[in-house]
Design goal:
It is a multi-pass membrane protein. It holds the Pfam family LysE. The chain is mainly α. It has nine helices and no strands. It is globular and about 55 Å long.
Length: 206
């Protein structure tokens, strides 16, 4: 049991530490909204993963993945959302989003908005269905519902902890990031990365 759990945690850490759309969004919101923006985004991502865990355990994720129309709708909706968030960042970079820029921050990240963005970003990615379908059953003998639920929730907690560490690290360098030129450069970088992830998702196969 403990060996299996250790193996699951090891695989989870490798996957979670590999940067993806959720990481890019959390970093972008930590730059723009500080520690609070990043942590609430991370919470939204973790909640999204918990929902995918329930969907996988109940077999719903399998139905979504097996349905070509549902998969395509989610894929293009998720890609469009990533591009939309990326364009927001590029717009902020173009106009200036630092505290010393005219008009103040353009992204206006509240806790609710950060949470919602993290949640939607994770749920709108159909690749998450395939990922949880391939990961959880490997460590749940016979596809045990309770085991898959517990493992999926553990994965979500590890994700939240990792993204929170990202956020805290960024927050400790707030003095540098609050300079207008640096903030605009980071907005441009994160915006470009989000758009790139969106395009990759749109062009991806099952």
């Amino acid at each position: 049991m403990w060996v299996q759990l250790s193996a699951f945690i090891g695989v989870s850490i490798v996957v979670i530490c590999t940067p993806g759309p959720d990481t890019a969004l959390t970093v972008r919101n930590a730059f723009s909204g500080g520690r609070r923006g990043g942590i609430w985004t991370a919470a939204g991502v973790a909640i999204g993963q918990a929902i995918w865990t329930v969907a996988t355990s109940l077999g719903i994720a399998g139905l979504i993945h097996a349905s070509e129309p549902a998969f395509l709708v989610m894929k293009f909706a998720g890609a469009a959302y990533l591009v939309y968030l990326g364009l927001q960042s590029l717009r902020a970079a173009w106009r200036g989003s630092g505290p010393d820029a005219a008009g103040g921050p353009l992204l206006h990240l509240t806790p609710g908005r950060s949470l919602r963005q993290g949640l939607i970003n994770d749920l709108a990615n159909p690749k998450m269905a395939a990922f949880f379908m391939s990961l959880l059953p490997q460590f749940a003998p016979g596809g045990d519902f309770v085991t898959m639920m517990l493992l999926g929730l553990l994965f979500s907690l590890i994700t939240f902890a990792w993204l929170t560490c990202y956020t805290v690290a960024i927050n400790k360098a707030r003095t540098l990031f609050n300079r207008s030129r640096v903030r605009r450069a980071m907005d441009a970088v994160t915006g470009t990365v989000l758009i790139a992830f969106g395009v990759r998702l749109a062009l991806s196969q099952r």
